[in-house]
Design goal:
Helix content: 25-40%
Strand order of the largest sheet: 1-3-2-6-4-5
Shape: elongated
Radius of gyration: 21 Å
Distance between the termini: 46 Å
Number of helices: 8
Largest sheet: 6 strands, mixed
Number of strands: 8
Length: 259
């Protein structure tokens, strides 16, 4: 059996421990990944004991409480707190999800929090999303037309509009892409489930007139066909979307245009 050893500078050590205030009775322990490029040290797991009697119910509530009251150096992204912006995507209890919609009570025992996996880390829980956003730009996520524009909006029937349900709701949190082994190994060339779902959103739009061009851009051994349908993307999506189905629909369109 093959054995693998992490590089020395990748091994996660034990960090600082921050005890709960005296008298706290309802304590939850959070173990949070910490790393900064400033000190040259290995990443570590810091331990925070949080008094849940003075904390909101969501993981993001605990993170904000830790930053405001316990350790101001803790770094993470967050914005809307309503599961809409995707900023607070991270790996919580082994699953990629949104901290603002993840209930602390759903996790038994210590709650471990890491940044999204297999992405470069800027600091602590903040991943570098430069590559996936650059990939998003390559699919040109806007309506492309060649006909004369109408004097008002471009109309759709209710049936045509319904085809976009399950696609437009994507918030680009990248929980799905960072759950995909194919994206881990081929992230520079494979677009990943988040971007391919976005690509299908425009392919499925009846108002778009560049379907052939869009399919030509995706016809590549790596950009599309690295998907092996293991369904991690669909399982982890915090918006309950189905990127795997969107990818399958793109592959079906590729076949249909050759028949």
């Amino acid at each position: 059996m093959a054995e693998f050893t992490l590089p020395a500078n990748s091994k996660i050590g034990t960090g600082e421990t921050y005890k709960a205030p005296g008298g706290a009775k309802n304590i939850k322990t959070f173990k949070i990944y910490r790393w900064t490029p400033d000190d040259g040290k290995n990443p570590s797991l810091d331990t925070y004991e949080v008094d849940m009697d003075t904390c909101g119910p969501m993981v993001l509530d605990a993170l904000i409480k830790i930053k405001n009251e316990i350790d101001s150096s803790l770094t993470f992204r967050r914005s809307c707190r309503e599961g809409v912006c995707g900023s607070c995507a991270m790996n919580i209890d082994g699953t990629n999800t949104l901290a603002c919609t993840k209930y602390i009570a759903d996790v038994k025992g210590d709650l471990k929090i890491y940044p999204l996996p297999h992405m470069p880390v800027v600091r602590d829980l903040v991943p570098d999303l430069t590559v996936p956003y650059a990939q998003l730009s390559t699919i040109e996520p806007w309506i492309k037309t060649t006909t004369q524009p109408p004097t008002r909006e471009r109309l759709q029937s209710p049936e045509e509009r319904a085809k976009l349900d399950g696609l437009w709701e994507c918030i680009l949190c990248f929980c799905c892409s960072t759950s995909c082994p194919s994206y881990w190994w081929n992230g520079e060339r494979y677009l990943g489930p988040a971007i391919l779902l976005q690509a299908y959103r425009w392919l499925a739009d009846s108002r778009d007139e560049a379907k052939g061009e869009r399919l030509d851009q995706l016809e590549d051994p790596f950009r599309l066909y690295r998907c092996h349908t293991i369904m991690n993307c669909t399982k982890t999506c915090p918006k309950h979307l189905n990127p795997a189905k969107a990818i399958a629909e793109i592959k079906k369109m590729m076949v249909e245009r050759t028949i």
